[in-house]
Design a protein that fits this description.
It is built from 25 helices and 24 strands. It is α/β, with parallel strands linked by helices. The structure holds adenosine-5'-diphosphate and magnesium ion.
Length: 687
């Protein structure tokens, strides 16, 4: 792109006529940035027709109408008894029904009045409202034209996603000026064809001639979506190349001990074929002089932890250290409890470090890490506190990796010298998506569950039948069952979540005195104690009520029933995760999805998906179709992939195309660089 054009795209919106600093900030709220470019990337949500209506009689309040009006009189506004009254123009429509046009403190009042002379007919377009007496009112109409000029009123209006204090007129104003300026800059003779065509497509989207122009399949939208995907793919390809080029910086470590065979012989079960294959892939990576960047995707219960342990043993054999990061304290403790005995057997020192470690105890742990004695440390973000030092951090394993932000992963990476990275994810992602999102990682898939697992029987039940459920559960408890009871996310508020859980706990206690409760705000010791009691094979606690703290990774193989309340409020992928807390032992497991009274038909349909399948990939696909990608991955990562023009449902083929084209590009072309500039959201934040 020519410099002059780039400068224009970088212009702050406040310098556009009629905008100024206040509106520019409003625009920033909506656009995520305040450059002309940010505006261009913000497309109208839909269009609405402006057909000429004969009368206001059958119009619904709030509709934008275009109507022919006969002007009867002007009623000047002003301040009366301390209250501001609008200036009103009293009119009749063609059928004689009264319509009032009104203006509040307009600086251009005389101008408006001149445009609406008494005794004449005019075509007026604007939003219709009704006052308390049922009178039809149009405030600040968007268009006023003489009958001869009716054609000047566009028959279709594009509507931009907006916020309070920012009108569609503000959008139209900026749009008109920006495209006017653009057409001068790109006037015939501009010799970069890609640039011209790209902005042409943008123009089509900003000035749609019909609703079809905004559909994902329209030529303009396809072009923009492809360009956007391509920009992202080129960026990923570059990152990938940089990674492969950091040769030699990673210490090559020779094998000093022989632990892995011993580890295999100590395992109480045989590894699945998939586990063996993935472990091989990891070991191959770890031999290379380039740092490993691998993502292991495996459905809940596919046995990712053992794979992670094998990797850490492989590192320990070479005398270096591994950290295993878990998203919650509970999960870290649990990993530790499971891994420690196995490590003990083969003589690897394993430790745990979380926010709860304080004082002398913590100090000792830090010393052991610094000296290199501790070879495997499990923990939470406490692992990358500034005072934690490692002797030789060779491998970083991130469990439930979508729970961590990119910056957190970077923070821990800095603790070593180009350490290997291994990410574990239980959110299976359709292939097209993972290619785009994790394009800079190699992917291994654990597509096999340990033998002998029975599929979980899943049913849905309205909350009104909770009493039936209680009697069924008491039977099961008599037969020795253990039950998770998950309470809903009430809002984004831990306190409210907690109240719901507490209430449910009191309720269940009436039927089952041996009910336990865990939640995020509980004293950690108490929580551990309750969890341990529940896990214990002779446990007294038969039902464990919890907020969603048990969502990730908790492993209690003897639990065989999970009840999820207000299941309709969870995403499918999250429900599938929760459900994965059972079905880990040899007995038949059950999942009961309780839904509230206000559930929608769609909500029920979503729950049915879970009742019918336990294939995590299929479920993720459905979730993606129904709720979009942000929901599937959580907000932390969706930043990169909050595409402006791409529609996951409709543009699948473009994903592949863009990825292939980007890979074939040896050195990014000038246009590819332009596109990366255009679509890079970081530029947006910085501007
Ligand atoms: P996830 O992939 O959900 O993290 P885990 O690693 O927690 O799964 O494993 C789930 C359970 O399956 C654990 O109790 C684990 O010990 C057990 N497990 C893992 N691999 C096997 C295997 N090959 N055979 C039998 N059980 C296994
Ligand atoms: Mg796990």
């Amino acid at each position: 792109m020519k410099k002059d054009l780039i400068d224009f795209l970088n212009t702050d919106l406040q310098f556009v006529k009629g905008v100024g600093p206040v509106l520019a900030s409003k625009f920033q709220e909506v656009l995520g940035g305040r450059r002309v470019l940010d505006f261009l990337l913000h497309k109208p949500a839909y269009v609405r027709p402006r057909e000429i209506t004969d009368s206001v009689m059958n119009v619904t309040a709030g509709d934008v109408i275009t109507i022919q009006l006969h002007i009867k009189s002007h009623k000047k506004g002003g301040v009366f008894r301390g209250r501001r009254a609008p200036t009103q123009i009293i009119c009749n429509d063609k059928l004689g029904a009264p319509v009032t046009i009104q203006f509040f403190n307009s600086n251009f009042l005389d101008y408006w009045l001149k445009k609406l002379p008494v005794g004449e007919w005019r075509i007026v377009s604007g939003k219709l409202e009704f006052n308390n007496n049922g009178g039809a009112i149009i405030s600040h109409p968007e268009f006023i034209e003489c009958i001869e000029n009716a054609a000047k009123i566009p028959t279709i209006q594009s509507v931009y996603p907006s916020t309070e204090g920012l009108t569609q007129k503000n959008f139209a104003n900026v749009r008109d000026q920006v495209f006017y300026a653009l057409s001068n800059k790109l006037s015939p003779g501009y010799d970069e064809e890609n640039v011209v065509r790209f902005f042409d497509a943008l123009r089509t989207v900003h000035f749609p001639q019909s609703a079809g122009d905004l559909l994902p399949q329209s030529d303009a939208m396809m072009r923009l979506a492809y360009d956007e995907l391509f920009a992202h793919q080129v960026a990923i390809a570059i990152t990938r190349k940089q990674r492969i080029n950091v040769k030699n910086h990673r210490p090559i470590r020779e094998k000093k001990y022989d632990l892995i065979e011993r580890f295999y012989s100590e395992l109480p079960f045989d590894l699945t074929g998939a586990q063996k294959r993935v472990i091989d892939e990891i070991f191959e990576d770890m031999k290379k002089p380039v740092p490993m960047m691998r993502l292991v995707q495996g459905d809940v219960g596919s046995g990712k932890t053992i794979v992670a342990l094998a990797a850490s043993i492989n590192m320990a054999e070479r005398g270096a250290q591994t950290v295993l990061m878990a998203p919650t304290d509970t999960l870290a403790q649990q990993h530790f409890a499971k891994l420690k005995p196995l490590c003990d057997k083969i003589g690897i020192i394993c430790d745990v470090l979380t926010g709860r470690d304080k004082g002398r105890d913590r100090n000792e742990k830090l010393i052991s890490l610094k000296s290199g004695r501790t070879r495997l440390v499990v923990g939470t973000h406490a692992l990358f506190s500034s005072d934690v030092e490692y002797k030789d951090l060779g491998l970083i394993i991130v469990d439930e990796q979508h729970r961590f932000g990119v910056d957190q992963r970077e923070a821990i990476r800095k603790k070593g010298i180009n350490p290997d990275m291994l990410a574990l994810s239980a959110t299976p992602i359709p292939r097209t998506l993972s290619m785009t999102i994790y394009g800079d990682m190699d992917i291994s898939i654990l597509n096999e569950k340990p033998a002998g697992r029975l599929p979980i029987k899943t049913t849905k039940l309205p909350i009104s039948r909770v009493n039936d459920l209680i009697s069924r559960l008491s039977l099961q408890i008599k037969n020795g069952a253990k039950i998770f009871w998950v309470c809903p996310l009430v809002k984004e508020s831990e306190t409210l979540d907690l109240m719901a859980a507490q209430e449910r706990y009191e309720f269940l206690k009436k039927y089952f005195p041996d009910t336990g409760l865990v939640h995020g705000k509980m004293d950690k010791k108490q929580r551990d104690k309750t969890m341990a009691q529940f896990s214990d094979s002779n446990s007294k606690i038969r039902i464990l009520v919890s907020t969603t703290v048990i969502e990730v990774g908790i492993d209690v193989p003897s639990a065989s029933i999970i009840v999820i309340e207000n299941a309709e409020r969870f995403g499918l992928a999250a429900l599938h995760q929760l459900r994965g807390r059972v079905g880990r032992g040899q007995t038949q497991s059950f999942c009961i999805l309780l839904y509230g009274n206000s559930v929608s038909e769609d909500g029920i349909k979503r729950l049915s998906v879970l009742c019918e399948t336990d294939d995590g990939f299929l479920i993720a696909e459905q979730d993606l179709m129904m709720r979009g990608v942000g929901e599937l991955l959580g907000t932390k990562q969706s930043g990169w992939i909050a595409y402006e023009f791409v529609d996951y449902r409709e543009h699948r083929d473009l994903f592949k195309l863009a990825a292939r084209d980007a890979r074939e590009l040896d050195v990014p072309s000038e246009w590819a660089n332009d596109l990366m500039f255009i679509f890079n959201r970081e530029n947006r934040a910085r501007a």
